[in-house]
Amino acid sequence: FVINDLDLQYFIQDRREVYQILKAEGIQLPRFAVLNRDPARPEECNLVEGEDHVEVNGEIFQKPFVEKPVSAEDHNVYIYYPTSAGGGSQRLFRKVRFFFGFCRGTAGYTSNMPVDTVYTVGPDYAHAEARKSPALDGKVERDSEGKEVRYPVILNAREKLIAWKVCSAFKQTVCGFDLLRASGQSYVCDVNGFSFVKNSMKYYDDCAKILGNIIMRELAPQFQIPWSIPLEAEDIPIVPTTSGTMMELRCVIAVIRHGDRTPKQKMKMEVRHQRFFYLFEKCGGYKSGKLKLKKPKQLQEVLDIARQLLLELGQNNDSEIEESKAKLEQLKTVLEMYGHFSGINRKVQLIYLPHGCPKTSSEEEDVRRDDPSLLLVLKWGGELTPAGRVQAEELGRAFRCMYPGGQGDYAGFPGCGLLRLHSTYRHDLKIYASDEGRVQMTAAAFAKGLLALEGELTPILVQMVKSANMNGLLDSDSDSLSSCQQKVKARLHEILQKDRDFTPEDYEKLAPTSSTSLVKSMQMIKIPVKTCDKVYSLIQNLTLQIRQRMEDPKSADIQLYHSETLELMLRRWSKLEKDFKMKNGRYNISKIPDIYDCIKYDVQHNSLLKLDNTMEIYRLSKALADIVIPQEYGISQAEKLDIAKGYCTPLIRKIRSDLQRTQDDDTVNKLHPVYSRGVMSPERHVRTRLYFTSESHVHSLLSVLRYGALCDEAKDEQWKRAMDYLKIVSELNYMTQIVIMLYEDPNKDPSSEDRFHVELHFSPGAKGCEEDKNLPSGFGYRPASRENEGSKKKPHNDNDEEAGGAKRDEPDRAHMMFRPMVSDPIYIHRKSPLPRSKKIGSVEVLSENNSHSRPNSDILVYFIEGFELYSMVPSICPLETLHNSMSLKQVDDFLASIAISHDPVLEISASSPGTVKTSSVPTKKAPLNTYTPAKVLPCPFTQSLGKKMCSSEKSASGMLH
By three-state DSSP, how is residue 901 classified? Predict the structure, then answer.
């Protein structure tokens, strides 16, 4: 008698055989193909490698895909990434070479996909453990004894059936296999055979009992020993709350602007050479008349053309090449920057002009011709800087502390509650980003800090970050401005072209919302044209200083921030100098944000040059930008709301659905009860949705919240204070955050408005170059706590909570745990002090009207202090509470009204009950209780096991398959 069948163990050594057996048993597998490099079977060795895909025996696998050797004993596992995410590959383990390939498609590689290991002892007993997926960063997380850190999880009924099938099919009583979860389904991706759990006394006791029972039944059948297995502890231990007043965090939604970036730059040139037309035709440009080139191979072709034309120009002065030599050199210089193409920080656009350029640009005066030409637009810059990466990573690390939990065996540092939630599937996390490289890299860096990952950002970007541009969620579909925006821009330009002091009428025209920061900027500028004159003369002086530095031999080896040269810096400023003042003597107001962008970058990152008058340019351009940037999104309240709806209505709808939905408990992969101490409801998810986007969406969402009538300032004192605070915020800087948190009081009646509680928080992002005393200051994080400080009572905590809870009188712990970490390449390693915020008060009491306290609310102190980083990495303003006592019904009704008011179809269907409603438009049904989250995922046992479950987010997940 053998416990595990020996013959089948030979099959387990070959991944091809494993997959054939699993397939025959009807167990779901990830999509795969086998590349057999056997000379005797050439038909099984067809491999075609493309830039972003491979074709294996006729089956195409888009990157990212995984390659494994056929031998299960060979752990040379690689994952390959698309060029859009930076390209390259990641070795998941420590070996070096691989030979035979096993390619798995991306079906199992959507975001948040760690692989679990399931251990069976007989067909009716399975123990499952979760771990951090090494595919994210190539690292295996280990404990103090060098063993991989794992957390037990509970399998659902369907997965227990899979364990029974695997155990029976391979005739392995003691067997381990890897389970991968994606889109509500479970897939077996590896069978390991004979293996035991590494660190679980309960498993050892159960295993000994079951194996003893199996052996005795086999060796002594005459005794008819009954079959017995230990039952899994399904009872959830009751965790006492503070007199029933604790509320459970159910959902966190954050909309975040990208981190610090290089100045965005653009160069236009008209090209007529045949090589450019050939490239345009080759890439299919004639179909739409325009072409966008971002892939490394395409950019390399443009670079080759530029090099060839420059070579011909150098060899022959009488050459017929019409392209500007200076512009070809700039094209070559920009494309050669950094020595490689990452695919996310440079792009070339080619636009077909059937009759040539309609007018000359501000940079050149060519005689107009009627024959066809191409307008080449080179865009570069605007990429996330090393400082921006550190900003995002540190904010992600601090963001963890908004989550409760972290007691018992897995406690030890602030924020560990979130890491445990995530590893054990109680954390339903999705990260969305627009298609801009800087936004995607910010999202990846944030995820790296949030989930304590290591290594490069590319693997994290591919696995964790979803592209949200398929439905305009975070991207603006059209390059053109709306009619309302065009009118607003024209009025703005007209007001700022006046060569006289601002009059009371001008204040009324430009600042009808009475924004404190706007009025302050207008008072500082006084005469707009005179201020523009001064800025222009200062820019002229700045370009002169840079030229002098270039001629100085001592400055020959000066290395500017992020590999920029003095020559590139001069071109950046010279172009602004030319474009700011037009030929008619008037100023191009649309260039003010670019000037502010550039000077902010140089003051922050290139201060070692010690150029004169940079702070004066910064001061004046910031005052102008503080008028132009926010007012481009509307001058009056009605305009701001109209433009904002145009940008962020899809996002508003998505936020509304995020607040409404919660997964059915039957479909949740739960944390094992033994490890659930300190978690209020172990069977429930915490839903986190992070949306990373650009300035336009952040401005728009804030406008909707401010001017969309969410609360009544006249009746709500807290909202009035919040609006007064927002009036003094002059800039929504990098890493601006708008955070919505949903809490549930399980002791309240499900139909009561008091059951769900919404909080709204805001941070204006990174601090600028001005002194801290000039920064806007609000009432802190959850200000109601400070107001009620005198009358508050300390809540009672049970022993588990006291053991893991942080003490409020230990300020040094925050400094110790959130000491900033360096990310390469940061060149200045001087640490700034970590002053304790004076705004931080007790955070036990929620609001004037509610006395609910949070589990482990004291640990939130670490998050709200903000953090000081290195001298080139500005610290981030702490979160300020805008409101902390809204009901979910109030917020849901508000979001619904915004979405409906922007959609005429919705408006008609909502107002006319008798009309036919189109299925493509979501509508509110009257009988539904809108402030109770709807359970949208059906129970899997109400359908056949083979039928795919549908969810409203599945289409978004499918974008990564």
Answer: helix
Maximum Cα interatomic distance, the chain, rounded to a whole number of Å: 109
> What does the alpha-carbon distance between residue 783 and residue 635 come to, in Å, rounded to a whole number?
30
Q: What span, in angstroms and rounded, lies between the C-alpha atoms of 8 and 702?
A: 62
Which distant-in-sequence residues (6+ apart) come within 8 Å of 325 by Cβ?
A: 310, 313
Tell me how far apart the alpha carbons of residues 162 and 683 are, in angstroms, rounded to a whole number: 22
Tracing tokens 């479950």 back to the chain, one arrives at: 949
Phi, psi of 164, deg, nearest 5: -60, -45
Torsion angle defined by CA atoms of residues 28, 30, 35 and 41, in that order, rounded to the nearest 10 degrees: 20
Distance of CA 877 to the CA centre of its chain: 19
Burial of 551 (0-12, 13-18, 19+ CB in 10 A): exposed
70-79, 513-522, 567-576, 930-939: least confidently modelled range:
930-939
Residue type, 300: Q
Per DSSP, 111 falls in state S
> How many other β-carbons are positioned within 10 Å of the β-carbon of residue 303?
17
Q: How far apart are alpha carbons 173 and 164 in whole angstroms? A: 10
Report residue 846: phi and psi, to 5°: -80, -50
Measured CA to CA, the distance from residue 625 to residue 594 in angstroms comes to 9
Q: For 531-567, how does the pLDDT look when each residue is reduced to its tens digit (9 = 90+)?
A: 999 999 999 999 999 999 999 888 877 889 988 889 8
pLDDT in tens, 357-377: 765 444 444 445 678 899 999
Encoded tokens for 553: 């031999």
Q: What is the DSSP letter of 757?
A: E
Radius of gyration of the chain (CA): 31
Q: Can you say whether the dihedral through the CA atoms of 561, 562, 564, 565 is positive or negative?
A: positive
d(CA 477, CA 672): 45
Q: How far is CA 363 from CA 322, 570, 578, in A?
A: 16, 15, 7
Give the residue with greater pLDDT, 50 vs 938: 50
Q: Are 328 and 335 in contact (CB under 8 A)?
A: no
What is the rounded distance in angstroms from the CA atom of residue 177 to the CA atom of residue 155?
13
